[in-house]
Amino acid sequence: MEAVKDIELTLDFYDGPVDPDWCPGCGDFGVLNAMKRAALKLELLPHELMFVSGIGCSSNLPGFIHSYGVHSLHGRAVPIATGIKLANPDLNVVITGGDGDGYGIGMGHFIHAMRRNLDLTYVVMDNQIYGLTTGQASPTTMKEVRTKTTPRGNVELPINPLALAIVSGATYVARGFSGNTRQLADLFAGAIAHKGFALVDVFSPCVTFNRVNTYAWFKQRVYDLADEEAYDPGDAEAALGKAFEWGDRIPLGLIYQSEQPTYGDSEPVLERGAPVSQPLGIESSLFEEMLAETM
Ligand code: SF4
User: Rounded distance, CA 16 to CA 229, Å?
Assistant: First the structure.
C-alpha cells in the first residue's frame, strides 16, 4: 500500500460520491466537514475507514464521504459495526447517527458496546429532535419543549448521554458542537486514534424542526474545557460532574478518557488473528473429528 500512501491528501479528497441532501444550515454539515478534517489529520485513506449508520437525516453521512460505508437499519448500526470491527480490526470503524437512532431504538446496543469497550468510534449528531420524521420529541429533547408529539411541552426528562457513557464503560467521552468544526475535528481524530469505545456527542442543530436549541442558543452557553487548566479527563468523578453541567454553562471538549483492555484484546477467538485473514472453512482433521462425533 506504499504507493497508495503517496497520494497527496486534501480535504476534497474525502468528498463522497453524492452531495449532502441536508437542509441548508443543518448542523450535520459541520460534522461532515470536521470528520474529513480528522481523516486528513490522521492521514487515513478511504480503505482504512468504515462508516456505519442507522436511519435518520444524519445517518445519510456514509454516502457523503469517500470511504467504505454501510447505511443500515434503524438503531442497528452498533451491532453491525461490532461485527465489522471484530472481523477486520485494522479498519477504523466509525458509527454515525442521530439521538433518536442511537439513544432511542438503539439504546440497548449502545450500552452493551460500551461495557465491552469495543474499539469503535460513535458520533451522535444530537439535535434533540426527530428530524427525518419532521419534528417529534426524541430521547434528548429537553423538558417542557413543545414538539409535534409534545404540543403542551415535553414531560419527560432527557437522557444524559455523557454520564451514561462514563458509567457504562466507554473509555473516551467527548462533546462537540458543529458550530466549532476545528475543535470537533480534534475530538474526532482523538476518538478514532483512541483504543476502546469512544463517544462523541455533537450538538448539531436541526434548523428546520428544533426552534429552541439553535446555534445562538448553544453559542450563549458552551465553553471549552481545554480552557480549564486544572481539569483532568482521567478523573471519572470530575468527568461525571462535567457531564451533569447544563443550563447557563455547558462544557465542550474531552470529558473523560482512560486506557482499558478492549473486547478484542480479551476475546480468545481473535487470538489467531483477524478473521478476515483466516482461511475459509475448517481444517480437514477438525472436520473428521466433528463428523465422527455425529455418526
Ligand atoms: Fe438537518 Fe433537521 Fe433538515 Fe434533518 S430536518 S436535514 S436534521 S435541519
Answer: 38
Q: pLDDT tens, 13-65?
A: 999 999 999 999 999 999 999 999 999 999 999 999 999 999 999 999 999 99
> What is the CA(214)–ligand 1 centre distance, in A?
12
- Tell me, using a 6 A CB cutoff, whether residue 26 lines ligand 1: yes
Opening angle at CA 67, ends 66 and 72, nearest 5: 115
If residue 93 lies in a helix (H) or strand (E), which one and from where to where? strand 92-98
Ligand 1 pocket mutation, candidates 22, 212, 215, criterion most atoms within 8 A of CB = 22
Strand, helix or coil at 256?
A: strand
Using the mean position of ligand 1's atoms as its centre, give its distance from the Cα of residue 65 in Å: 18
* Residues near 241 by beta carbon (within 8 Å), at least 6 away in sequence: none
Helices 107-115 and 161-168 meet at what angle, rounded to 10? 40
The SS3 of residue 253 is strand
- Could you tell me which of 126, 88, 95 has the C-alpha nearest to residue 188? 95
Closest-lying ligand 1 atom to the alpha carbon of residue 57: 4
Output the residue whose Cα is nearest ligand 1's atom 2.
206
Amino acid at 288: E
Distances (CA, A) of 63 to 68, 69, 70: 9, 7, 8
Statement: the pTM of the whole predicted model exceeds 0.90: yes
Specify the residue with its C-alpha closest to ligand 1, atom 1.
Answer: 26
